[in-house]
């Protein structure tokens, strides 16, 4: 079953819909703009990952798991709108574990490998795709998780909401990017955004709910088989928060 699933993702020929926006689809000025916006997050993310892995090399395996989770989920795409597609993102798990800056690097690398190996997305649109999936989504997941924990204290609910709402925000950002690049002749940006977001919602809402549930299952698995790493991450976060309060 696993072999069949892997082949369906990697082996079967598919039209080159992007993940999320395909190569050459954005006008040059918008492609450059999103590259410029995304690059600072990537640079700070590299610094964050370097600090984590140097101080705690035993977390590298968990880091790889977070990246692999995002790679596999975001490769399961459903054609949705011309020049784009719907799919889970898998970024919520890594954002909760390692923080949004770290996930900006992992998510960008996922997008890069998929553009080169699976023809999902592209290099010119990598900045736009990275901003929506590897930056906006993870930051949303991180804050949603911590706010939910603060007000409810229920970790599974926090994980579900973080993963599901980060997925939805990713596609809201993608809809904004497409609407900015291709405003409607009548109604401009707003009309174009409503069109893109409305079509995305048909497939993305059930996908976001499914991703939230799957992320909770993976979290439960980590708690059963990797409790030491999770406890270490919790201690690192507490130390970081205490340093910030000094």
TrEMBL record:
<dbReference type="GO" id="GO:0009236">
    <property type="term" value="P:cobalamin biosynthetic process"/>
</dbReference>
<keyword id="KW-0472">Membrane</keyword>
<keyword id="KW-1003">Cell membrane</keyword>
<keyword id="KW-0169">Cobalamin biosynthesis</keyword>
<keyword id="KW-0812">Transmembrane</keyword>
<keyword id="KW-0170">Cobalt</keyword>
<keyword id="KW-0406">Ion transport</keyword>
<keyword id="KW-0171">Cobalt transport</keyword>
<feature type="transmembrane region" description="Helical">
    <location>
        <begin position="28"/>
        <end position="49"/>
    </location>
</feature>
<feature type="transmembrane region" description="Helical">
    <location>
        <begin position="196"/>
        <end position="222"/>
    </location>
</feature>
<keyword id="KW-1133">Transmembrane helix</keyword>
<dbReference type="InterPro" id="IPR018024">
    <property type="entry name" value="CbiM"/>
</dbReference>
<comment type="similarity">
    <text>Belongs to the CbiM family.</text>
</comment>
<dbReference type="InterPro" id="IPR002751">
    <property type="entry name" value="CbiM/NikMN"/>
</dbReference>
<comment type="pathway">
    <text>Cofactor biosynthesis; adenosylcobalamin biosynthesis.</text>
</comment>
<comment type="subunit">
    <text>Forms an energy-coupling factor (ECF) transporter complex composed of an ATP-binding protein (A component, CbiO), a transmembrane protein (T component, CbiQ) and 2 possible substrate-capture proteins (S components, CbiM and CbiN) of unknown stoichimetry.</text>
</comment>
<feature type="transmembrane region" description="Helical">
    <location>
        <begin position="98"/>
        <end position="119"/>
    </location>
</feature>
<dbReference type="GO" id="GO:0043190">
    <property type="term" value="C:ATP-binding cassette (ABC) transporter complex"/>
</dbReference>
<protein>
    <recommendedName>
        <fullName>Cobalt transport protein CbiM</fullName>
    </recommendedName>
</protein>
<feature type="transmembrane region" description="Helical">
    <location>
        <begin position="126"/>
        <end position="145"/>
    </location>
</feature>
<feature type="transmembrane region" description="Helical">
    <location>
        <begin position="157"/>
        <end position="184"/>
    </location>
</feature>
<keyword id="KW-0813">Transport</keyword>
<dbReference type="GO" id="GO:0015087">
    <property type="term" value="F:cobalt ion transmembrane transporter activity"/>
</dbReference>
<feature type="transmembrane region" description="Helical">
    <location>
        <begin position="61"/>
        <end position="78"/>
    </location>
</feature>
<comment type="function">
    <text>Part of the energy-coupling factor (ECF) transporter complex CbiMNOQ involved in cobalt import.</text>
</comment>
<dbReference type="Pfam" id="PF01891">
    <property type="entry name" value="CbiM"/>
</dbReference>
């Amino acid at each position: 079953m696993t072999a069949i699933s892997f082949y369906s993702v990697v082996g079967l020929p598919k039209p080159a819909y992007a993940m999320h926006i395909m190569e050459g689809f954005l006008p040059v000025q918008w492609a450059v703009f999103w590259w410029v916006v995304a690059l600072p997050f990537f640079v700070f993310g590299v610094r964050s990952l370097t600090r984590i892995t140097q101080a705690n090399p035993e977390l590298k395996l968990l880091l790889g798991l977070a990246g692999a989770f995002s790679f596999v989920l975001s490769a399961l795409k459903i054609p949705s709108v011309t020049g784009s597609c719907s799919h889970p993102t898998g970024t919520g798990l890594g954002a909760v574990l390692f923080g949004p800056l770290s996930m900006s690097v992992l998510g960008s690398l996922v997008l890069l490998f998929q553009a080169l190996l699976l023809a999902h997305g592209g290099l010119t649109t990598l900045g736009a795709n990275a901003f929506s999936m590897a930056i906006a989504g993870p930051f949303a997941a991180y804050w949603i998780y911590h706010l939910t924990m603060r007000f409810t204290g229920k970790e599974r609910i926090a994980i579900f909401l973080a993963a599901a709402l980060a997925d939805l925000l990713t596609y809201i950002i993608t809809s904004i990017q497409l609407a900015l690049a291709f405003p409607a002749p009548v109604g401009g940006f707003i009309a174009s955004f409503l069109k893109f977001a409305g079509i995305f919602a048909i497939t993305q809402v059930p996908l976001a709910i499914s991703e939230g549930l799957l992320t909770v299952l993976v979290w439960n698995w980590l708690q059963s088989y990797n409790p030491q790493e999770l406890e270490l991450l919790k201690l690192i976060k507490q130390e970081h928060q205490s340093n910030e309060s000094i």
